User: Fold these one by one.
Assistant:
Number 1:
Amino acid sequence: MHTIEIVIIAFGLAMDAFTVSLISGTNSNTRGFRPAFRLSFHFGLFQFMMPVIGWYAGIQVVSYIEDFDHWIALILLSYVGIKMIISGLDSAEKFNKNDLSKGKSLVLMSVATSIDALAVGLSLALLKVNIWYPAVIIGVVTGMLSLIGVRIGNRVGVKFGKSMEVIGGVILILIGIKIVFEHLGFIPV
């Protein structure tokens, strides 16, 4: 897997965290450096850890499913992408107005926004990709986009956040399709 593909996957995965950061940034309790750092650090950390966990689970079953692993990757990435699209089309008013950068809210949001990365880690194991480089890229991109999201949210609100999540979902689905086309020989690897 090429670096550009990993970066594209990272951006796709980071859209959940970016959107949540953007929405969190509109909350008056998340203004300033500390709340922005807490959100971006935790989102990046969880986005780093989840693909590693998914990858380790995936390498246990690779030999049993390598003949159809490309279809599994397509299904997993499409599932994640569709979930992101649906979430992107939902109303943003679901978020309450407590400090989302602390305690239970922070942990729950970190887990919720990184579940998709678990499936991607499993997909990468099926493709026999070493996980450490993609996991670091995914974590760093997520952390940076989360920080940017909070800062933008602090300034302009949630006007464009949900559409970015839809775009991220579409990107993941397209990457899944590309993986199948590569495996079938329609696109040279």
Number 2:
Amino acid sequence: MLSLFERKKNKQKIDTSVPISEAQYVVLDTELTGLDEKKDSIVSIGAVRMTGGRIELGNTFYRLVSPRTELKASSVIIHEITPSEVAAKPGIDTVLAEFTEFCGDAILAGHFISIDLSFLNREMKRISGKDIPNPAIDTFTIYEWLRKRNKSRDCFATPFAGYRLYDIVKCFEVPVNGAHNALMDAFITAQLLQRFLPLLIEAGAEDIGDLIKIGIPFKGGDHFNLSGEFSNF
């Protein structure tokens, strides 16, 4: 396993000139024992691959993880993963090796992905001393960037309180069905990104270099990525 991480220990060099309609994406979500990065841990990882706007339904990743910290009742209510379901599952070291293999050189995407990355990178650093090398984009900051340029369109006219994923996707006619789990949320987020890509192209974003600037993962307290001001646009 460590050899895999060693192969990924340096930041990936990507061709930023690849059109966003042709780029490789892995849209991901995690379920956690809680949101405290120091005290909580990962319970499951779900992801789906995309090539441009095409979601590869046959190319998904879903693993339950035996968490390194105790599952709390408050989190079980949300993701419905019980202690008995994960007791015999592999630990995060094994699952993270499989997940990074699945991701390859793709761009990572998620809604408020900085939360997922904070937990994933904590484990990566523990194992290999380095963060996950893939560039990452946030559908929340992409939504905000598009909203500032499409205020006359219905789904951008009024910002959503809290910017919850399920509220935004309903406006874009993304169906929300089935149980709440990491793979389902990754698939829902992938459909949202699918809706955003043609709007980004229409607004002048051409390649993944542009997309990475627009989709900078949002972190609480950061405002630079909500200003809608990027030098190339």
Number 3:
Amino acid sequence: MQWFIEHLSAMTPLGAYMWLAGILLLCGLGLPIPEDVSLLAAGYFAYKGVLHLHRAFAVCFTAVLLGDTFAFFMGRWFGRRVLGSPWARRYFTPRRQRRVRAYFRKFGSKVVFLARFTPGLRFSIFFSAGTLHLRPSVFFIYDTLAAAISVPVLVYVAWFFGGQIDRVVMMARHTEHGILVALSIVGIVFLIRAYRRRQRPALVEDPPLD
């Protein structure tokens, strides 16, 4: 995160807002930079007085939603064509495609809400939601609800504890890992239950009495 802070420090406030918005948009499109770095940096620079706190939050929140929405509509418009290309299969492998579809089968549209807290799969899930033609209104509702939790928590916590930003970054990483572990456990439980249901012998009904 240090290089990110040093880069922002050399910018004007307007340039910093634009940089944050641009990075978060690209994160929504799969850029391999942790989204939480930008959100924590926004809160930290608000703590330093460089940025206005609520304005920084509004910029980050809008950019996050736009990035997610772009990923969704990319899948809706170009998904099937893109997934058939050799380049896409390297990043979004058939195995990962099966995993994402399994999430949708298990959790339905609520997987969009969960995806906001799973950085490694976020773009893949949003792209798949578009490819599977999830209703845009459903996607936007669940994504907005999730972003209304994740974005303000990171921005305002970094602002409130700006003097201990290194500890905040470490806590955010641990929390993120904890969420991933919890979601993995939930997925395993669902898979075990589904397997057990398939293994149960069908009940034979008693013949009707004469």
Number 4:
Amino acid sequence: MSDRRTGDEEGGFLRNRTHDEIQPGDSASITRLVSRDDIELFAAVSGDVNPAHLDATFAATGFFGQIVAHGMWTGALVSAVIGTRLPGPGTIYLDQELKFLKPVVPGDVVTATVEVAEKREDRVLVLDTRCTNRAGEEVLSGRATVIAPDRRIEWPRAHLPDVTLRRHDRYERFVERARALPPIRVAIVHPCSPDAVIGAVEARDAGLFEPILVGPEGKIRAAAEAAQVLLEDMVLEPVPHSHAAAERAVELALAGQVEALAKGSLHTEELLGAVVRSRLRTERRISHVYGMDVPAYDKPLIITDAAINIQPTLPEKRDICQNAIDLFRQLGVQKPKVAVLAAVETVNPGMPATLDAAALTVMAARGQITGGVVDGPLAFDNAVSPDAARTKGIVSPVAGKADILLVPDLEAGNMLAKQLTHFSGATAAGLVLGARVPIVLTSRSDPLSARIASAALARLVVEARSITGN
């Protein structure tokens, strides 16, 4: 909870008051600012995910016309006063009556007050409890009965862990845009594992894909049975093995029978090899992007290339950069900012990545890369953190606010993406660009949110290309 503390709460100790010390009329209070984080944390802990507390669209049609805090959030403030201030540590709750009088909304400042109404034998106290908002209006009233402690206690205040909410909504608007469009026909290449079949079903149920399952029919049906899903409404394109599945999927794309490809349970090299050998290949180098939803970053982020080009040359990096810029533009970001990463932010002849970064910056300035703002070399910290960039005195239109991180090589990109996924709670949508159709590339370990985001990106790319004709 957001907190404004006074008195003893500013110190490192909690101090109680015994039954003998307390008299009728004694009181204590605490004040809190209720924020969106408070409401969502309370929902996470309590399990009360009533959309009236969490969904602005739903709440707008409700009784109060906006999101309101849980009533028991204010009740918890009363408990906090009793447990930490009056009587404090050692108190035992016997009873609590509550009346909820007015809604509490994000941004309200709530003061919870406890006042001793009656002192009884056997260390029993009756307490009037109330909460008021910033305007002094009573939002909660009630009465508590407690057993007060019989000895003085001074106890170190617990050091609570820092809590960061992992919100995964960076790609939400893209998913909603994609769902508003008609589904596209997609060849699911060699979906011969339960995970691959389930992925196809998920994209279909999300209204994004009309899957065509390309592979050995017996293996696909066995995978569907293991996944406990039905294939009656699915189109099957039977072929004998994974190599044939990749070739047939390419043929379907070239014939205009599918608008995108999606990797099933075959190796990535098999699928992309078939693409590269065909007329699906363009003059542009094929590259991979991770669309990252990083809770600690305030907007969508792309990392490229972390899956296909092992040690790209400067011309290949130009294509990788252009592919990522084009994707962001297709998503509606008109001038995406590209940070070309290196270990340092200065050009060092002994570090080839810094030379490539400087060259890419000049290439963008001279029109060899279009549609975005490119700058480098930039170290990771000053690419994504305005404070880090400011501390190092970096003046750049990209530093601290990058949309795209162009990494030096596949190893760096792969490690960066997986570190963000495992240590920062990020999700990563995978897409291959540079061919005539987008190719969805996901992992068996990806959560549903990442798989749906990958499908949504492919759907939006197809839509954008149908409008521009590219």
